[in-house]
Amino acid sequence: DIIPQPLLDQYLSMTDPARAQTVDTEIAKHCAYSLPGVALTLGRQNWHCLKDTYETLASDVQWKVRRTLAFSIHELAVILGDQLTAADLVPIFNGFLKDLDEVRIGVLKHLYDFLKLLHADKRREYLYQLQEFVVTDNSRNWRFRYELAEQLILILELYNPNDVYDYLRHIALTLCSDKVSEVRWISFKLVVAILQKFYANNANALGLNFINELVVRFRHCSKWVGRQAFAFICQVGMFSFCVSTCKF
C-alpha cells in the first residue's frame, strides 16, 4: 500500500550482479545511496522487505558500496529504532569497524550519532574498540585521527567519568603526541574536555590524577614539543574557562 510492488521489486533487484554487468557497474552503489530513503518511506514495520538487500550491500565486494552504507548507517538507525538497530545494524556496524579505512571513516564521522542511539550497556561495549581507530592502514592518513579526536569530544557525554578515565584518556594522550600538528591541536581540546568532564561530575580525584599525568608526560618531557604541548593544553584550558565564566 506504500510502494507499488513492481517498483519495490525493481529496486531490490539492483543488487543482482548480472545487472551490474548489463545496466550500470555502479548500480549497487546507487541502491546503497537510496536505501535510507526507501526505508523511511516503507517505515520500520516493513524493514523485513529491505533487510536481506541491506545485508547483501553491506558485504558487497566493492568498497564504495560499503562506504556508502557506512556513511548513512546512523540515519538508518534513527529510522529503525533501538530494537531493530541492535538486532540488524549493530553486527553490520561492527563489520564496518574492521573494514578498509575508506569504509571505516564513514562510521567514524558519525560515531557519536550512532552510539547515542544504543542502550548504555551495548554502547559500553565499544569502549574497548575505540582504541582501534588510532591505527590506520596508512599512517599518513592524519585526517582519520583528527576526526577521531573530534568525535571523542562529543562522545564524552555518553560515558561516565570512570569509563572516560579508563579508556578514552589513553587515546587522548596518544593523539596529543601525534606527528601532525593539526591532530595534536584538536587533541589538546579533547584533553581539556576530559578534565571538564571530571570536574563537572565531581570526579575531582580523577581530574587531579589526569593533571599529574599531563605534568609528568608533557611538562617534564625531555623534548621541546612535549613541553610545548603542555603550554598549549594550558592555553586551551584557560580559554575554555574564560568562555564558560564570562557573561556577555
From TrEMBL:
Signal peptide: none annotated. It comes from the Eukaryota. One of its GO terms (cellular component) is cytoplasm. Keywords: Repeat. One of its GO terms (molecular function) is protein phosphatase regulator activity. The keyword Transferase does not apply. InterPro entries: ARM-like, ARM-type_fold, PP2A_Regulatory_Subunit_A. This is PP4R1 phosphatase. The gene is Ppp4r1_0.
